[in-house]
Amino acid sequence: GPLAATSAWLAEPTAVRIARAPDRRTLALCLGELAHRAALRRPFPGLSPATAEVYSLLPRGWRRFALRAGERGQLLRRAQLYRWLPRDDAPVPYRVTGRQLALLLEGYARDAQSRRATREVVLHPGGLVAEIAPRASEVTALRSAAGAPLDRHRAYPVWLPASLAAGAAAAFDRALIHPSQRAGAAAGSLREALFALLSDPALMLPPPCPTFLAGGG
Predict the structure, then answer these.
(1) Alpha helices in 85-157 (DSSP H)
(2) Helix or strand or coil: residue 92?
(3) Which of 142, 143, 33, 157 lies closest to 93, judged by CA?
């Protein structure tokens, strides 16, 4: 029946195993990097995948978890992934300026300095390195992962969460993002994109994921 089908669907395994329970920051960093990789699997509208450098600012609202009996050493399943991310989202393509990116990362800056920040506004800078002012919750400069500085006035291709586009935390208002900056349709469920990524046997886990996840083996 339907309940049995749902149970079987939630029990479907990925290709990685849970070695131990991570702390909150390690979980956020790992799954932020995985969300970035999952978003990049979908072509950005109007860009050639071979030449374009695409960034992402996706949620860090992951729920810290304790391993349940028998979970250590077992394959990560869809149900556990959904437990980590209790609210789904969808990456949406936008063209956003360097200055707007810095404004959207204010929550990230507060969180990095152990200041109070709501989950909705703590976004992971996928493909980016953010320099933060020592005594202010402000991103002073952004660089690509390759080290190239971002121009505050230039627009860059970025995957942003649909929840922010819908008004969550008024983040788009503060960053002065206009609807005309949207570049295409939403990419679908972030949770399912992560499940597909983690189900790929060829996946090389980014740091710091190997501190608590391991290949299926």
Answers:
(1) 98-104, 106-112
(2) strand
(3) 157
Q: Rounded to whole angstroms, what are the CA distances from 17 to 71, 171, 202, 213?
A: 9, 35, 14, 6
Q: Are 88 and 20 in contact (CB under 8 A)?
A: no
For 126-183, the pLDDT digits (tens) are 999 999 988 777 899 999 999 999 999 999 999 999 988 887 767 788 888 999 999 9
Cβ-Cβ contacts under 8 Å for 38 (sequence gap 6 or more): 91, 190, 193, 194, 196, 197
Among left, alpha and beta (phi > 0; psi -120 to 50; other), residue 170 is left
For 127, residues 6+ apart whose C-beta sits below 8 A from its C-beta are: 36, 40, 53, 54, 55, 56, 144, 145
- Name the pTM for this structure: 0.91
Handedness of CA 118, 120, 121, 124 (dihedral sign): positive
- CA-CA-CA-CA torsion for 41, 147, 95, 97, nearest 10 degrees? 160
CA distance 52 to 199: 26
> What distance, in Å, lies between the first and last C-alpha atoms of the chain?
33
State the pairing for strand pair 155-161/55-59. Answer: parallel
